[in-house]
Amino acid sequence: MGNNGKPTVGIFGFTGCAGCQLNILNLEDHLLDIISLVDITSWVMAKAENDDGPWDVAFVEGSIAKSTDIERLKKIREKSGVLVAIGACATHGGLPALRNLADTDEWKKEVYGDDYERIDAIDIKPVSHYVKVDYSLPGCPMDKAEFVEAVKALLIGKTPYIPQYSVCGECKAKENVCLLKEGKFCMGPVVQAGCDALCPTYGAACEGCRGPAPEANWAAEVEILKKIGATSEDVKRKFLKYCPSVADMEEFKELEF
What we know:
The chain has about 260 residues and is α/β, with parallel strands linked by helices. The chain folds into 2 domains: about 10-155, NADH:ubiquinone oxidoreductase-like, 20kDa subunit (Rossmann fold); about 165-255, no CATH class. It has helices at about 20-25, 30-35, 65-80, 90, 105-110, 145-155, 165-175, 200, 220-225, 230-240, 250-255; strands at about 10-15, 40, 55-60, 80-85, 135. A 5-stranded parallel β-sheet has the order 2-1-3-4-5, with helices on both faces.
């Protein structure tokens, strides 16, 4: 707690587009309510003066892409009672982690020439690879409503609700026409819900930015996608686009593309 009796909060960004932090700013009226209940003592994106903690809750956006990031992340963890990873970059590596699929030294040489060795670039990992993450709010960007609900839950000492089913469940509830039946390469059957099926509701296939749904049948999704015309490479890209860390999971390694 801060001197004013409010829980202290820190919001931090690592490698990413800062879209999840921007989504917090875009909460508008909700943001005013949140500020009245908590003391945001560190948020470089929104504050000129920031302190070094400790914090009751830390929200961390972005993937870990440099060795110096690891040290900074661990310090945040040490000073935080609860740490929440927000957005696909923090929860699964996100789009930045696609660079892991290439040879790091090779692309550094291509971009930086003979000075490539001075570039601090490591294989990109999600926040949970280095520190304990108490809760994760996935998505690219994270869902604003889900963030608000998580803050409310934490304020009253409850566990934030995280859906344990796939986007398909939300599509069914909204009576959406199945995009797979229309021949679109939709990842809804294997992706964690919580976005209210935003993309499929507007006719766009789910791209998988929220990561794998619990107990999803990945093998069946591969077969469905191939049946409607996806190549093996198409399917791999769909699984890895927003969540390259999936490549390290045994379920992915066992798939036959």
